[in-house]
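Supplementary Note 3. Input sequence used for the single-chain structure prediction.
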Amino acid sequence: MRGHRRGLSGRRIRHRAESRNPDGGLGRTVNGSYAEYTRARVDNVVAIDSDLPWEELAAIPESYATAWTCLFRNLEIRAGQTLLIRGATSSFGQAAVNLAVNAGLHVIATTRSKERFAMLETLGVMRVELEGPSLSARLAEAGQVDAVLDLVGNSVVMDSLAIVRRGGRVCLAGFLGGLAPVPDFNPLLQMPSGVHFSFFGSFVFGNPQFPLSDVPLQAIARDVALGRYRAKPSRVFKFDEIHAAHRAMEANQANGKMVVLVD
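The predicted structure, written as discrete structure tokens, is reproduced below.
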């Protein structure tokens, strides 16, 4: 969740993306996630010309910037490829589904709940699978998938590596399944030959090798406004409802990006 202050006029919107640069990331290494004002590094500020309301703009930058970088930089996706997104009902996962489907990929998505199959199908995925540590044994395309975006994390990453073809790519970018380490990990013996494995975390944005200018946020905001991407926040709270927002997060009821408005 991010706090945003209302009251600015005009269409020129300046929006912050977070980093772990020396100034720290708000809510990560610097206290003040719900402050009315903050000072952002100039490297982490981009101008977005948009008529979208503040709460919809707030749901875009981190999820979409991270998803875009994972897909088009780490995984180097191309139209016609088959992509598996593990943990697709998270706000990050939904952003990745939107981007990949609109880029012309055949997307297989996973979720832990059958009740969420229909939501993912409305986003245009080819198929939804129930998430689990042995997905590679159940997936018809195992060994043929071009790329896997793994948002579940260490508990299934070895399984993800077994799903892609020779020359395929796996990007680990989330830990929805927890932070327990991969047991007895021996890359030389356990990793399949010829598979590319990488990691991406949004905290690197703003560093010289990961400039925000690399991410087409203006084009993404335009496509959101045109309805090509479903990027509206799942829930919007007022600042005096912050405790309800936290309860929803802790109960795993977010179902997407939640936004808190600071009036």
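The mean pLDDT is 86. The chain has two domains: 3-58+205-262, 76-200.
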